[in-house]
Each structure stands twice: as C-alpha cells, then as structure tokens.
Q: What sequence folds into this?
C-alpha cells in the first residue's frame, strides 16, 4: 500500500473514562516553554509579560498576563497525566508525517503533552504521557533508579545460567558498542517467559541482553513503572491517571 493511502494508527486509540483524573496547577514555567506548549513560534522577546518585554529565560506564573501581537495568551495550563497501553507497531518518536507515530494519540490530549520516555516499536505495554516536564524529568533521571517491569517471551528455554547472568548484570553488545548492564531482578514465569525489572532505560536493552545470551525476543510488554501496574487497558486504549496512580508512578519500589 503506498504511503499516501495508509490510514493513521490513531484510529486504534480508544479513550476510557477516569472518575477523578489527576491535575496539578503549575507553579511557574519558562516563557519559551509556555509558548512551545501553545504551539507558537514567536520569539519570547516579542511577548509582553505584565506589560514588560519577555525573554527566553523569563519565568511565567499563573497570574501573569501575557500579550503577543495585541492578543492575550491563555494562562499556564494545568499539568495533566495519562496512561496508555501502547500496541506493537506504534513508534514513540513524535512525527506528524508518520502513520505509525504516537503523534496521532497526542492530538487527542492537551497541548504540550509528550510521552515520558520511550517503548520501542516492537514492544507493547505501559506508556505514560504528560505535559509536566518536571514530572517526566524526575522519572527519567538516571539517579532516580525508578523501576520498570517487563514480561518477556523468548524463542527457547531459559537456563539457570542465563537467568543468573541477567540478575548479576552482564556485558552485552548493542551494535558495535559493549555496554555493562546493572544488576537487576529477573524471575522465570515459565520455561520461555521471564519477568525482568530494570532501574535503567537504555535503548532496546532487554532485547540486546537476551540476544547476547543467544535468545530472540518474541514478545515484550512493560507491565509496571514504579509501583504503578498496567491497569486493565487493552492495546490501543488510554485514560487519565488518578491522583493515587500519579503517586504510585513516582514512587521507587524498595
């Protein structure tokens, strides 16, 4: 099928209702970030903040009045938080021109919303989305060691030796690079399926580690972030997080 006739994958996205969705009023935001959330390409210097010329590093507060080209701009948006079950085949790179991009889901969410981290195209499972940059930074910072849990099915029987190597942290190949993985928790669910918990998030790490051990990944699903488990969402479904779930996502499992 030629690219021009492809239907965007956004047809797969189905919203489910949340009784009490979480939302947080922002304390402040850099002016350039606020303009970016509003999809405005104007230079921050062209915007008046309470009657004074702005600048890229200028902090903007919820009570500030913003004027651009004679038009008042909306105030800072409430911070919102969403969860989706990303299907296999959806790319987390935000590209409007790609039919398989997560961009199509973002069009149904508040302006400025973006995926928190990535889940590779061949994988499925939990993906968080937000317009709260500070929240995303806390989850993604390498020093935070937030745990992410995955269920993985491979092409043949997992040995005790392979499981021990995963748990101890093995040296694996990612293309031409050799990367030392941190020790992690891993347990067998059956002969060819394991559950693995990582505190780092390198690109396609689980696939590369298992390939180094001689296995091919057949199915990979993220089932938890922090203490938040993937709720009862089918692939392609999404909804807002509740306040309790928001706290769970930000917690570190002991």
A:
């Amino acid at each position: 099928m030629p690219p021009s006739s492809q239907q965007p994958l956004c047809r797969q996205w189905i919203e489910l209702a949340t009784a009490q969705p979480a939302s947080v009023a922002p304390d402040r935001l850099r002016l350039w970030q606020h303009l970016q959330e509003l999809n405005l390409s104007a230079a921050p210097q062209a915007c008046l903040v309470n009657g004074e010329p702005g600048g890229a590093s200028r902090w903007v507060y919820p009570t500030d009045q913003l004027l651009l080209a004679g038009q008042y701009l909306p105030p800072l948006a409430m911070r919102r938080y969403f969860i989706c079950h990303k299907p296999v085949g959806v790319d987390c790179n935000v590209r409007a021109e790609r039919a398989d991009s997560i961009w199509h889901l973002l069009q149904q969410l508040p302006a400025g919303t973006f995926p928190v981290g990535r889940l590779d195209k061949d994988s499925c499972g939990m993906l968080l989305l937000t317009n709260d940059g500070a929240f995303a930074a806390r989850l993604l910072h390498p020093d935070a060691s937030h745990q992410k849990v995955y269920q993985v099915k491979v092409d043949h029987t997992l040995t005790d030796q392979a499981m021990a190597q995963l748990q101890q942290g093995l040296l694996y190949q990612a293309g031409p690079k050799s990367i030392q993985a941190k020790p992690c928790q891993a347990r067998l669910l059956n002969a060819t399926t394991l559950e693995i918990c990582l505190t780092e998030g390198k690109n396609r790490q689980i696939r590369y580690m298992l390939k180094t051990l001689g296995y091919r990944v057949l199915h990979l699903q993220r089932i938890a972030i922090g203490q938040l488990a993937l709720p009862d969402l089918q692939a392609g479904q999404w909804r807002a997080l509740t306040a309790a779930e928001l706290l769970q996502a930000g917690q570190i499992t002991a």
